[in-house]
Amino acid sequence: MSEFDDLYQEVIMDHYRRPKGRADLSHIPDERAMENPTCGDTIKLEILHDEAGRISEVRHNGHGCAISTASASLMSEYTRGLTPEEARAAAERFIGALRGEGKLDELDSMGDLAALRGVAGLPVRVKCATLAWHALLRELGEKAS
Ligand code: ZN
Fold first, then answer.
1. For position 81, which CATH number holds?
2. Which of 17, 100, 112, 145 is the most buried (most CB within 10 A)?
3. How remote is the CA of residue 42 from the centroid of ligand 1, in Å?
4. Is the pLDDT of residue 36 over 70?
5. Global pTM?
């Protein structure tokens, strides 16, 4: 964790302690949860849309470490008001940047998500940070088809 800037660390711990979008999703079967076996993180998502088809809220629940929980919370905040297409593009940009496929600097244009840039280059942590976003892509994909 020494690679984290203090400010970023604070953002992450804040979202971990008080996750935005966390909700009771016991109506969604556990089989729908996405897992990150490397760390033991699990997450369930539910995407709510407004009348215009934009995302009004991404709700999440699960058991996760600080990184995966903070990332889910930041995702819930970031995706509010986006179209499904915009949310998909954001997920791909975020995952790509952390994996080193895109430019890491792109995270700087994604608000507080920049707080997670410290995990890039730490493969185990990248899986924690991207879990919620993979779940988002899966849910969006199924909505589209
Ligand atoms: Zn984790």
1. 3.90.1010.10
2. 112
3. 9
4. yes
5. 0.92
